[in-house]
Design a protein that fits this description.
Rossmann fold
């Protein structure tokens, strides 16, 4: 069988809206809410518990759609957030499901607001953080869901975040120090008292999580150890206790099971190559054991009702659609509610294979690769003829790649590429030595890890070393630009989505409310642009200073309203290339920010990216066809790309 014998899966199958996603059960257990398209735009729908097919929309957004919502403890009310064309100045909205009445709880323009906490003890209130008083700091307000009235609860004069108890009383606060470290303080008798202080090596892996009904403060903790453990501090007795730990992975909070009324942590996930549950409370041990029998994939509990007899569980495999299940705890049985993208189940998708690649200095890089389905097997072997390759680089960089379904992996594998994602040093979740190995290594060892991974793929016989693309967004976009400027001989072409080109202007133009965490960022990147030495250091690691070394084709996608990596970053590298007569393809989306949220924009970008990769690597390509319809894409430079 050859690639030509396999159907070319339409891009919209991967990058269009899901049918249903983010299912959540209401606290009273009577309803299930979820996100689904309404006239092609993602909105909130609500169904009765035992009438999922009777769901009706309760919002009617017509533009960018809704990407997150949460039930409140006030019966029949939910909240969601929405910004304006990607500017990240989010407003918090409350929807009354029965009446359809919608209220903007934070009707202040030009500020960024987020829900912070809520509790069943005070069902008509939520906490919201917003930077309306000082654009650098988020104060915390208590908001009445019935009246919309806001009361200033905590004035923030430099903290990165706060924690509250079940009565919505202030418990703790974290702030970063000038050296990049952090301290946690407890609020006691109207004063701050120090709890602990850590150096910059522990800031990512140590911090408070939640306070439970028994007065225990739960924390992730890496001080005096490599991987972060889950610990608790009894605020009444001062007793510390370690509940869960892993030799290779951090306790990160992803997939955590928190009791719906006591807020104690009952189980958690550690992830090295794959997710592994650790049970803390024996009350949920049988439940976790049962859920792990649901099928191929990792089960994650997305919500629980207050009676704790009904759970919503998402099962996430790598080679088919995510499925959502209603779990009945007493009977130990599940009811399939839906598949997020049922059309994927009719396609021969490929597996995602975990592997650990050794870097040139002996560091084990947790990585994932995908082969075209005609070559895929449970125990993969290299093809007879090496394949063109796409290296996908994750953003952050303080994030990580995971095992599971990836639309980009599947899209590229379907086009005939060998696809590889690498958790380069600086990635999170794999211990503090792993993340701290990236300190000061932007365009250094972090990039060298990516080059070593490409060489691994070539040496193993998976990849053709003369046909390798690098592709990513945010930090992954920066890595793409670094690849084409620092190691121009390694990559055949690059696809950059909203990547920084100049670390000086990047740090000078971040959102003002990032101010509390800037000491940590400066420590990890290696310098601040507040003096000549710092600027010189950052420029030495900036692709803009080496733009004349770009000799391979480059495609750039940028949102006009991106507050994190501003349009200036793409404009600078494009301008430098124009000055030197170097071709570049530059696509601008005037209604997007840091990421392409509208499905029409996502699909149009990957339509062009598919043509770009096919032209330079030789993979299969679906004609653009109708995939530009409804997109806001503006072609500022076509780079001689035939499709444009």
């Amino acid at each position: 069988m050859t690639d030509s014998d396999l159907p070319l899966v339409p891009r919209r199958t991967y990058f269009g809206n899901p049918r249903k996603v983010l299912l959540r059960i209401s606290p009273d257990g009577r309803r299930i809410g979820f996100l689904a398209p309404l006239d092609g735009v993602m909105n909130i729908w609500v169904a009765p518990l035992h009438g999922f097919e009777e769901a009706e929309p309760v919002t009617s957004n017509t533009h960018r759609g809704i990407r997150w919502f949460q039930w409140t403890y006030s019966p029949g009310r939910l909240i969601y957030i929405r910004d304006s064309d990607g500017d990240e100045n989010f407003h918090v909205y409350c929807v009354e499901v029965d009446s359809g009445r919608e209220t903007d709880l934070t009707p202040v323009e030009g500020v960024s607001a987020f829900p912070t906490d809520q509790t069943p003890r005070l069902p008509d209130k939520i906490l919201v953080s917003m930077n309306d008083r000082d654009p650098r700091f988020r104060d915390v307000h208590a908001v009445d869901l019935s009246s919309g009235e806001r009361e200033l609860l905590v004035r923030n004069d430099g903290f990165a975040g706060f924690g509250f108890d079940l009565d919505l009383e202030l418990v703790d606060g974290v702030r970063y120090l000038e050296d990049g470290g952090a301290e946690c303080l407890l609020w006691h008798d109207d004063e701050w008292e120090p709890l602990y202080r850590v150096g910059p090596e522990d800031t990512i892996n140590t911090g408070p999580v939640i306070t439970d009904a028994d007065g225990r403060l739960w924390l992730t903790w890496s001080r005096d150890r490599n991987t972060s453990a889950l610990r608790s501090l009894d605020l009444r007795t001062g007793e510390w206790k370690t509940h869960a730990e892993h030799p290779k992975a951090d306790f990160t909070g992803r997939g955590m099971l928190i009791h719906p009324t006591t807020r104690s942590i009952q189980a958690g996930l550690f992830e090295y190559e794959r997710m592994e549950y650790q049970v803390i409370d024996d009350d949920v041990r049988e439940d976790i054991d049962y859920l792990q029998t649901l099928g191929r994939g990792d089960p994650i509990v997305t919500s629980r009702n207050l009676d704790d007899d009904l759970w919503i569980v998402a099962l996430t495999p790598d080679d088919r659609s995510r499925s959502y299940h209603l779990y009945y705890r007493e009977q130990k049985k599940t009811e399939l509610l839906c598949h997020s993208r049922p059309e994927l189940n009719r396609i021969n998708l490929s597996r995602m294979h975990p592997t650990v690649i050794e870097s040139r200095d002996g560091m084990g890089l947790v990585s994932y690769f995908t082969l075209p389905s005609r070559l895929d097997s449970e125990e993969p072997v290299p093809p007879d003829t090496p394949l063109p390759m796409v290296l996908l680089v994750h953003g952050g960089p303080w994030a990580r790649d995971h095992w599971g379904y990836s639309p980009r992996h599947q899209w590229l594998a379907n086009r005939g590429y060998f696809v590889l994602s690498v958790n380069f040093r600086g990635s999170t979740g794999l211990g503090k030595s792993y993340v701290n190995a990236g300190n000061g290594e932007w365009a250094g060892k972090m990039h060298r890890d990516l080059v070593d991974a490409v060489q691994w793929a070539v040496d193993k016989g998976y990849a053709d070393g003369d046909r390798v693309a690098i592709m990513g967004g945010s930090y992954g976009g920066y890595a793409t630009l670094v690849g084409l400027t620092f190691t121009p001989e390694v990559f055949t072409c690059g696809v950059d989505r909203f990547g920084p080109s100049n670390l000086v202007t990047l740090l000078q133009n971040v959102p003002e409310y990032w101010a509390p965490m800037m000491p940590m960022m400066g420590k990890r990147i290696g310098a601040f642009p507040d003096n000549d030495d710092g600027k010189q250091y950052l420029l030495e690691r900036s692709p803009i200073t080496r733009a004349d070394r770009i000799v391979r084709p480059l495609l750039i996608g940028q949102g006009s309203n991106d507050p994190r990596v501003t349009k200036m970053e793409s404009d600078q590298i494009v301008g430098a290339m124009r000055e030197k007569g170097l071709p570049v393809t530059y696509l601008l989306y005037p209604d997007e920010g840091h990421g392409f949220q509208r499905p029409e924009n996502r699909t149009s970008f990957f339509a062009v990216a598919g043509q770009f990769l096919s032209e330079h690597l030789g993979g299969r390509c679906q004609p653009i066809g109708e995939d530009m319809e409804g997109s806001s894409m503006e072609v500022l430079d076509d780079g001689d790309l035939e499709a444009l």
